[in-house]
Design a protein that fits this description.
The protein folds into two domains: about 40 residues, no CATH class; about 250 residues, Alpha-Beta Complex (2-enoyl-CoA Hydratase, Chain A, domain 1). The longest helix has 20 residues. It is α/β, with parallel strands linked by helices and about 325 residues long. It contains 14 helices and eight strands.
């Protein structure tokens, strides 16, 4: 299991803008450790003091995160992806490719696997860790063939009577002309329609970004889990700011108004559970984060398996019908 995240080990940590003070402290610690290794001077006490200061600063920063800082964490380039979690949490993963109509879309991954002996079907958005990987994965933005591949795997899950687990991490569906020409809107709508009546348990987890219909196309679930520093929204803060204030620099204000954090969405009844992350985010301790998610998945999946098929579908229908309560203000005279 530990080998699944070897790509994170000894990798130079990348810092977000609001983490710059941490970077300065961590750099000082690294310099002192290099001196110690060279045997030039004993700086053990100085290292411990700086590490303690760094830990305290990390806690202070993460105790007071703004919604837009959480947006930045959700997009962190080192954040564990769907395949990272699949490799760590599940056994015997067999990837299934292609939509059997046009081509293979690598921004959606999926296939058969086992979760502590329970056979499951997995589907997830997949971003890259480098620019080259992101080009191959289209930055996690699926085209119609990606959603049609997901639809094929959903149907197989229903046919084989096995649970479906989906991993959400996308800025949104690909908005290019070729995607529209191949029926992007229809592909997303078809997935949403099919998932509402899919006769097998569905669990969805937002790993990072949950962007608009591109996320919803594989997120019509019986239970929606969100990682602590993930987001889920109908539009990005930047897009909202550009439309509402005609200025993308209002993204921070938009993030606050959108109420897109995991805590906000559980409070509003859209998400069901926040899965805690290690202090500093999942990218700082990906193995610990993945094990926490595995425990949550097992608990939720075993609970869903207690429902009969008719009750499962009735509850899913009611879940989405009950979303989005609103109040009407009295008409002004």
């Amino acid at each position: 299991m530990e080998q699944s995240f070897t790509s994170f080990v000894n990798k130079k940590r990348r810092y977000l803008e609001f983490e710059r003070p941490l970077q300065d402290l961590d750099n000082q610690v690294e310099q002192l450790k290099n001196l110690k290794l060279q045997g030039q001077v004993d700086v053990s006490l100085e290292i411990k003091a700086l590490e303690k200061k760094s830990d305290e600063l990390l806690k202070t920063l993460f105790d007071h995160l703004t919604p837009y800082q959480i947006v930045q964490l959700a997009r962190h380039p080192d954040r564990p992806s769907a395949l990272d979690h699949i490799d760590t949490i599940f056994d015997d993963f067999t990837e299934l490719s292609g939509d059997r109509a046009f081509m293979e879309d690598k921004s959606i991954v999926g296939g058969l696997a086992s979760l502590d002996g329970i056979p499951v079907m997995l589907i997830g958005h997949q971003k890259g860790k480098t620019t080259q990987e992101n080009v191959v994965r289209n930055f996690g933005m699926p085209k119609p063939e990606g959603y049609r591949k997901a639809l094929r795997l959903m149907s197989l899950a229903e046919q084989w009577k096995i649970p479906l687990i989906t991993f959400i991490d996308t800025p949104g569906a690909y908005p290019g002309i070729e995607a529209e020409e191949r029926g992007q809107a229809e592909a997303i709508a078809k997935n949403i329609l099919v998932m509402t009546d899919l006769k097998t348990p569905i669990l969805s987890i937002v790993l990072g970004e949950g962007g608009s219909g591109g996320a919803l196309a594989i997120a019509v679930a019986d239970r929606l889990l969100m990682m602590q520093y993930s987001i889920y929204s109908v539009i990005s803060p930047e897009g909202c700011a550009a439309i509402t204030w005609k200025d993308g620099s209002f993204a921070s204000k938009a993030a606050e108004a959108l109420q897109l954090t995991a805590a906000d969405l559980v409070k509003s009844g859209i998400a069901d559970l926040v899965v805690p992350e290690p202090l500093g985010g999942a990218h700082r301790d990906p193995l610990s984060s993945a094990l926490g998610l595995k425990a949550a998945l097992l608990k939720e999946l075993k609970n869903l398996q207690t429902f009969s098929q008719p009750d499962l579908l009735t509850n899913r229908y009611s879940r989405f019908r009950d979303m989005g309560p609103y109040r009407e203000s009295p008409k002004s005279v």
